[in-house]
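COMPLEX REQUEST
Ligand: flavin-adenine dinucleotide
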Amino acid sequence: MKRRDLIIIGAGPAGLSAAIEAAQYGLDVVVYDENALPGGQLFKQIHKFFGSKEHRARERGFRIGQQLLEEAGRAGVEVVLGAQVIGLYDGLIVQVVRGDRIERVRANAVVIATGASENMVPFPGWTLPGVIGAGAAQTMANLHGVRPGNDLLMVGCGNVGVVVAYQMLQAGCRVQAMIDASRAIGGYGVHAAKVARTGVPFFLGHTILQAEGDGKVESATIAQVDERWQPVPGTEKTFAVDTICLAVGLTPATQLSRMAGCTMINLPGLGGLVPATAQNGATSVPGLYVAGDAGGIEEASSAMIRGRLAGLAAARRQGFADSQAAESRGQELHESLDRLRGGPFGERIRAAEELMHKALEKEAACQTA
Ligand SMILES: Cc1cc2nc3c(=O)[nH]c(=O)nc-3n(C[C@H](O)[C@H](O)[C@H](O)COP(=O)(O)OP(=O)(O)OC[C@H]3O[C@@H](n4cnc5c(N)ncnc54)[C@H](O)[C@@H]3O)c2cc1C
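STATUS: Structure written out below.
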């Protein structure tokens, strides 16, 4: 069986950043990604990032993806595409499908950076063609140049909902309405304002009741919700739409961390069930790290720093990084992550991490008892 210093699963911002960081210390690094293109979500992101210059604000996601790929190439990272990892055994044996072959490769360390999947909400008619995830709509329009439909209803006004709605308008769709059960817009104000300026109505405190149509979506009915999020009779409105985009949250991809036997913890603030990790992404399985959305839903900017922390930790574990230099690099990365999470959007993450550390302390106490 082949052996590598570090195997990274997922070539999104977290995986590529982990690879670049580790390769700089001289590790032999391979990144597997099931897609035909590397970059994860970044290549769909044609909008400019927010935050500070340090965290790549005002740069477009796909350009950041290109830069990461070039950097990975210069660092000598091997990126293998069309390679789906289907198994992780004894923590560090990776089973990967490439074409019609299945290979097993042993690693001294593994970083899981498999991202997240989109949440769905079931309602009558939700299986009709035309009900799709907002991320899927973004992939169709921005990667494949295919407009997902002509008349859209966007369900969810968080960051994904408002960003994708604007991109659908740019792609030539008509967004008939934006709805959210919450009474506040969760997404960045500037993106919501761009959508609102085009005249798209926002229905906050509303939910979708059903999709109607003969073999495909032809209309959608929404209704106001009360304080218990129950539909209020008599408030129904129907829109003639052919596409309903669901932007109702993401769930960390935890299949591989669960298979590897990581201690898992349910933290709604991070998107649900996540592997318990130290701040550098180390899981309860020695040599196995998690970075990016696979360890808790956040943003590409933090996924890149979390990736670098995991790459650095994997290098230190194998004695590649001089401990004093690695210590100060780690400190620098932690400080950068703290600054990124300093704003109001970081509150949810900080609270969830505190819960995670309390749970880990409790577990450590149980083990020594
Ligand atoms: C619509 C939308 C808009 C967004 N806008 C922004 C924004 O403006 N700013 C921002 O900072 N963030 C934004 N985000 C969030 C950001 O895209 C994610 O937080 C970030 O991409 C997470 O990076 P990641 O590397 O963890 O995962 P991903 O980017 O999802 O990459 C995961 C990779 O793993 C691969 N993979 C998964 N499973 C396997 C497997 N078993 N075997 C091999 N490969 C596998 C996938 O193919 C993928 O390439 C947005 C997200 C969405 C959905």
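REMARKS: The domain at 120-246 is CATH 3.50.50.60 (FAD/NAD(P)-binding domain). The mean pLDDT is 93.
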